[in-house]
Amino acid sequence: MKLSEELNWRGFAAENSFTNPSELDEKANKRFYFGADPSADSLTIGNLAALMMCACFVRHGYEPILLVGGATGQIGDPKENGERELKPLEEVAHNKECIRRQMANVISFDGAADTRNDGDPDNDHYELRLVDNYDWFKNINFLDFLREVGKNFSMTQLLDRKFIQNRIGEGGSGISYAEFSYSLIQGYDFLHLYRHYGIDLQLCGADQFGNASSGVHLIKRLEGGRADVWSTPLVIDPVTGRKFGKSEGNAIWLSSQDNGSGNYTSIFDFYQFWLNQSDQAVESLIKIYTVLSRDEIDQILAEHQAHPELRIAQKALARGATEVVHGKSSAAAVITLTELLFGGRKIETLTESEIESIAMLLPHFELNGTEINIIDVLVELGLASSRSEAKTLILGNAISVNNQKIQDPTYQISSFAILKRGKNKFAIVK
Hints:
Elements: H1 3-10, H2 23-26, E1 31-36, H3 45-59, E2 63-68, H4 89-107, E3 129-132, H5 134-137, H6 142-148, H7 155-159, H8 162-168, H9 177-180, H10 182-197, E4 201-205, H11 209-223, E5 228-232, H12 267-275, H13 279-289, H14 294-306, H15 312-326, H16 328-342, H17 352-359, E6 364-365, E7 372-373, H18 374-380, H19 387-395, E8 399-401, E9 404-405, E10 412-413, E11 417-421, E12 425-429
Helix pairs in contact: 10-11, 12-15, 12-16, 13-15, 15-16, 18-19
């Protein structure tokens, strides 16, 4: 399957500047850039969809440059419904380093890494490069920027943007000059990368197409060159009808650990999110969020349709998405844990390595050859806020150990055990 065909099949085709998408298949300059602002210390599955599009380009021989918006992140991409709060520079710097790692991990997942020195010449197709737009904006004079960039945009052109119209129209919240200028700043990113790296293609989410087009305009005006944009549709939550993301308050984060902001989703919860997708949504999501081939996905969907009760497609989606973000070993561990909790697998069948791997997925307490009272461990692992609450939960039939309800406050745990509070709070004793 050619690149243009795969992009369409996977659902990675929204607005673009090409006359015909097949131009991507024959493009001589196989380079692109993709950028993300450090508005939080973790990316979300909304960002992940665009990164999976980038990985698709890489599998077809394109060389990526990943841009972290250390400069643009200090202003913030304009929202449709209100002004963004400016973040302290220290927070921007922290966020930048966090998402830099996440972007590189996703793009590198399925062989799309810098493999120039791995001994296999067939893999030597590109070098993974990450850049930060703060590096070139920090020395730009404001007047020079207005003369070179601002002079090449008409107010009419900028006011035509939908989000600007929403903000300044009747009932709109208004927009600051800083956010109004964001499109020019992002446009300059494209111009800079065109001049210094020979980049003539930007990939983005559909909500960034207008900003990306500013760069196309600048390159044409100032360099007389051609540049293009390819965007992917925003992924919509089939339950709420809203996009997945920070601004919508329904973010599923790529980080599995709290970096200080609370913006994280545990590997267990990440896996369960995909596992619980509806039959209606899974067919499109498995194409977007896994690197499974068309033949593999067609087979999975056929088996799923024959036996929907087995949730074959959801399991393949959950495994594939978790492998991309958290690695194959974490995916295997969370599958084992899910089988223990919901699939009927017995604890006594676990190997030592399996115990160690799943213990990393949940809050855990190490016995070290001793035993511990159920009340003490509930408090220790955060399943209860106090001893009195722990006792109340036990007597209220809300606590299970290895899928068995515990109603004795004096119960002692002396070996590996999975604790459950209510329907979806878990911890491990080992």
